[in-house]
Amino acid sequence: PRNIFFSRHGESQYNVEGKIGGDSDLSPRGWMYAKALPQLIKDNIGDAPLTVWHSTLRRTGQTASELPYPKLAWKSLDELDAGVCDAMTYEEIEKYYPEDYANRDDDKFNYRYRGGESYRDVVVRLEPIIMELERQENILIIGHQAIIRCLYAYFHALSQEDLPYIKIPLHTVIQLTPKAYGCDEKRFQLPI
Ligand code: F6P
Which residues are designated catalytic? Predict the structure, then answer.
């Protein structure tokens, strides 16, 4: 059976600083994850063919860099665009845009950042990715928190209300094996 693997990029410099968005590099811990990832994947699929898809942002390309498989960068896998809040911490957003902060809390799926995107927008832009995923064999997607939430919710048929709160931890590979109805799931967390 074919497998779909999801992983967030390794820890980034912005993750360390608590800032959202941006295009920062991996932190030293993030690089440790990038270096450990090839063995974890090989242990799971052996010599079966695999293609790696990542976003156009530095942190996903860096996380994919050690993987010995064909790779493809998709703009539509870039993280949810936080508009004017890009590069801020959640504390800064609460301070400078208190109304937005509250509105997002009220309806996280539909809230659209000023000059940016909502989860609903991201679901729409991921449609071509999902169509292509349905036609492919083994794929590993190295993405971002909001992006993987949307893809994961699609394969597990989770609701729009739950989608923005799905736990997608760093340094964890999620393996989905599609069945006639639904998907089997395994998670592999690297102790990094
Ligand atoms: O903090 C990492 C991050 O990927 C941000 O770049 C992004 O804005 C955020 O997570 C998405 O998570 P949430 O929708 O819970 O703020």
Answer: 8-9, 15, 59, 79, 144
